[in-house]
Amino acid sequence: MRQDNSESIVRRSVSDSPRVGAYGFGPFRLELAKRTLERDGSQVILPSRAFDALTVLIENRGQVVEKDVLMRLVWPTTNVEENNVAQCMVAIRRALGDHYVATVAGRGYSFTAPVRTFPEETAKGHSARYRSIFAGGLLVALMGAIVWQAPTPSGDKPRFVPLTGSNNEARPSFSPDGLRVVYDWIPDGERRRSLYIKLLGAGDAVRLTRSGFAANPAWSPDGRYIAYMGEPRVIYLVPSVGGAERRLTSTQLMGVGGRQISWSPDGKRLAFVDRDAETGWPSIFDLSVESGERRQLTRGVGEYGDLSPAVSPDGKTLAFIRVSSLAVYAIYLAPVAGGEPRRLTRFEERANGFAWTPDGRDIVFSGNPDGFRSLWRVSAAGGISRRIPAAGYDAFGPVVAPVGNRLAFTQRKGRSNLWQIQLNGSSLPRQIAATTGVQTNPQFSPDGRRLSFCSTRSGRFENWISDADGRNLRQVTSLGAQGGIVGKARWSPEGSEIAFAGGPAGTTDIWIADVDRSGERRIASHPAEDVLPSYSRDGRWVYFASNRTGEFQIWKVARSGGEAVQVTRDGGAGAIEDAAGQHIYYLNPRKAGIWRMSTAGGPEAPVVDIKLEWREYSHLWTLADDGVLYYCVRDSSSQERSWELTRFDPATRQRKTVLRLPNGLTALTISPDGDTCAYSRQETESESIMLVENFR
């Protein structure tokens, strides 16, 4: 909004609450209503246009204000040249000295000193005549002068609007004034995430980082810097107006999946995730931005540990996600000064991303208590969580603007389906049992006539079976509908049962379900995490992986249930017994690759070298009569990676490419006759950032 009055700039800023009446910096005080500049109480002569230009620079301190932006805002009704701006800068520097305004060659100017604000109630000569319009700094330079409307009256309903419109956009963080958002994004045609800044309400995003990987941004409380995760596992600091990055500290955890950095309210420290030196478990640390000194705030309780730190607005409380297994995680609160954490959310709510409200009274989190990921709100004092209907579904990683009644989050949607292909390459892949949701982890029955798989077609993950061609679908399990989780199933040798990991909220035990009758029974239970079961060839035992000793090892339990027996000692998960019943093959969480040991006991030795994290790879390999089959990338240095199904013969130690496969596979299985591969593939996945206006 501009007025014809050339003696003033009319602005309205939602960031001034209450509205600013004066700015202080060094010995100076800029009175907005009286339009005066004082030094230690004495007035300093400053021409009217120079006063307006200085005000724009101060309101956008730490940002580069382009010359053409200054011309449009300071001379809204007059055509002027850059020389006029230069004259204003001369007058400003004559009044202030040379330390406050920096020239950015070829672009414009930036106010670099710390600024104090004084509300209208305490400013001298209170007047309602002077207001401010946000001048956008870095972004206005590209978009022109932007008019941002003040928040609507408190009676207005929350409004759900898109903030970005591309894909692969995630993890937003608000600027302190609530008018800009920084987020990480992989634009089309690129392969690495970079940071981008977008002004709310208009215009395109502006790229902030240009070298290397950058994700998980967190805007500093004073608006001058953005901390982020970069390679190689390093936390960096970059000016919010762009410029050289500063290395802060290294961490053993990249933490791209969720928000892993949080500023203290005074901007002096950063909370982040790293490994505990003794246990290796993820824990929360904090770091002095100035000195680099770090201290440990929490100690994780398992291999997943403590994640996603967020310091309360008053700086007294640390909130974080504590994960003891894939099914047991919740938000915890702990005093920053030290003390025992207390659990805030229920395990069945599965809170995996959250933010404090500006007043510190509530926490907004992404939860999944009913099978649909949405946003919820809970009092920091404890109590019942309440859904935020305005945010809809598929909502992850919320952030709340410090001012301005806005909430942003990542909306993530995906679809995966089942496919089949002949291993001799005689046909193209064909889709089976299509759905608009998620289907994964297919397994052929021992006779090859049926498939088991996990699907959300009933609303929650359950195990289903169908004919081998995807027809005659039937749901087998019901634990998901009860609020629990259900994992990948393996068939019994005669094909009458499936074993799977899962259970009610807060547990992952080993279960068996009859495929022709309803109902499940638990055969192994422990407070630790029990996962990835499979039957022995004689059907007497069920192997599974468990971290009940502190790290994942292979265990086995009688099919009828009872006391579990530890099998491996050097790490193990995902055991499959060979056709002769003489060996088990498995992944090693400690060391890369597929390993083998005799079913009678003995040495544990590597067989196939696969340099992938075991959880990522646990569904992408299997045994066949003629060797180990696994999904791998042929040439990781190629721009276009070639993914293949490879056979490894343990007797000859020879590898052979069986078939080229699409990328994006999440699980695979081979038919007993060795003719068909069934697999699940991620077909669509989209990430974009959404905004909720009038959020309170």
Short recap of the structure:
The chain has 696 residues and is mainly β.
Assess the beta-strand content as a share of residues: 35-45%
Query: What oligomerization state is this entry in?
Result: single chain
Can you tell me the residue ranges where pLDDT is under 50 for at least 5 consecutive residues? Answer: 1-18, 122-154
Helix content: under 10%
The major β-sheet equals: 6 strands, antiparallel
In round numbers, the mean pLDDT is 84
The total strand number stands at 54
Number of helices: 5
**Rg (C-alpha, Å):** 30 Å
Class inferred from helices and paired strands: mainly beta
Taking the alpha carbons of the first and last residues, their distance comes to 27 Å
Shape: elongated
Structure description:
The chain is mainly beta and 696 residues long. Helices cover 7% and strands 43% of the residues. The chain is elongated, with a radius of gyration of 30 Å. The N terminus is likely disordered.
What is this structure's SSE topology?
Blueprint (H helix, E strand, L loop, with lengths): L19 E6 L2 E4 L4 E4 L2 E3 L3 H12 L5 E2 H8 L7 H15 L4 E4 L3 E4 L4 E4 L17 H7 L15 E4 L6 E6 L5 E6 L8 E6 L6 E2 L6 E6 L5 E6 L3 E6 L6 E5 L10 E3 L5 E7 L6 E7 L5 E3 L8 E7 L5 E9 L2 E8 L6 E2 L10 E3 L5 E6 L6 E6 L6 E2 L7 E6 L5 E17 L7 E3 L6 E6 L5 E6 L6 E6 L6 E2 L9 E7 L5 E7 L5 E6 L5 E5 L5 E6 L5 E6 L6 E6 L6 E2 L6 E5 L5 E5 L6 E5 L6 E4 L5 H4 L3 E4 L2 E7 L9 E7 L4 E7 L4 E6 L5 E18 L3
Antiparallel strand pairs: 1-2, 1-8, 2-3, 3-4, 5-7, 6-7, 9-54, 10-11, 11-12, 12-13, 14-15, 15-16, 16-17, 18-19, 19-20, 20-21, 22-23, 23-24, 24-25, 26-27, 27-28, 28-29, 30-31, 31-32, 31-54, 33-34, 34-35, 35-36, 37-38, 38-39, 39-40, 41-42, 42-43, 43-44, 45-46, 46-47, 47-48, 49-50, 50-51, 51-52, ...
Helix pairs in contact: 1-3
